[in-house]
Automatic annotation (TrEMBL):
Gene3D superfamilies: Glutaconate Coenzyme A-transferase. Keywords: Transferase. This is 3-oxoacid CoA-transferase subunit A. Belongs to the 3-oxoacid CoA-transferase subunit A family. PANTHER family: ACETATE COA-TRANSFERASE SUBUNIT ALPHA, KETOACID-COENZYME A TRANSFERASE. InterPro entries: 3-oxoacid_CoA-transf_A, CoA_trans_fam_I, CoA_transf_BS, NagB/RpiA_transferase-like. Coiled coil: none annotated.
């Protein structure tokens, strides 16, 4: 019997996400953003969330809509500001939102470490910058490194291209981005996909996220946005 639940609606998929949860949200800007799951999370009502994502939202869709709804306490990301991040800008500058900036490579590796069961690792990124303040350092082969700890999520919301009935996932090109490491780093992984196919139809060599990392799958229609975040 498959451990992954194939659900009928996004509302059912995000049911049970608690106030104060740490939620890993896939996407590189708008590419691979799980728009439908985020919209369902807004309807669901969980608040005081810590969001881990590459960006802090575009326009007023997806993650930006969640921020605008006042459901997020803290954002951990590598690239919080761009030309259309005005929702984040307003909340952060008014003191309504906490921010932890993590260099992009470290962000990915800290989640990968969580999924791989690695207790911590040393990275040279951010040495000598304000981001190094308060972190343990170590010199290895004449180079200074910072000690970095895993980022684990209570939930991960990811967007994949297709799933099979067991919950194996394949992605579409750059929309993959952080999806695989987030799926492995979360206690509960929820994936929205464009289609669910019979078990055996996916090429095993093409499966990026095995079903063991996936708890809930919901099929949604593809949605497209301009770079400014308008439909």
């Amino acid at each position: 019997m498959a451990r992954t639940a194939i659900l009928e609606s996004t509302d059912e998929a995000v049911a049970g996400i608690e106030d104060g949860s740490t939620v890993l949200v896939g996407g590189f800007g708008l590419a691979g953003m799980p728009f439908d799951l985020i919209d369902a999370l807004i309807r669901q009502g969980a608040k005081e969330l810590t969001i881990v994502s590459n960006n802090a939202g575009n326009g007023e869709v997806g993650l930006a809509a969640l921020l605008k709804a006042g459901r997020v306490r803290k954002v951990i990301c590598s690239f919080p500001r761009q030309s259309d991040s005005y929702v984040f800008d307003e909340l952060y500058l008014s003191g309504k939102l906490e921010l932890e900036v993590v260099p992009q490579g470290n962000l990915a590796e800290r989640m990968r470490a969580a999924g791989a069961g690695i207790g911590a690792f040393y990275s040279p990124t951010a040495v000598g910058t304000p981001l190094a303040e308060g972190k343990e350092t170590r010199e290895i082969d004449g180079r200074t490194y910072l000690l970095e700890y895993p980022i684990r999520g209570d939930y991960a919301l990811v967007s994949a291209h297709r799933a099979d009935r067991l919950g194996n996932l394949v992605y579409r090109k750059t929309a993959r981005n952080f999806g695989p490491v987030m799926a492995a780093a979360a206690t509960t992984t929820i994936a929205q996909v464009s289609s669910v196919v019979p078990t055996g139809e996916l090429d095993p060599e093409a499966v990026v996220t095995p079903s063991i990392y996936v708890d809930r799958v919901v099929c949604v229609e593809a949605r497209h946005y301009t770079v400014q975040g308008a439909r």
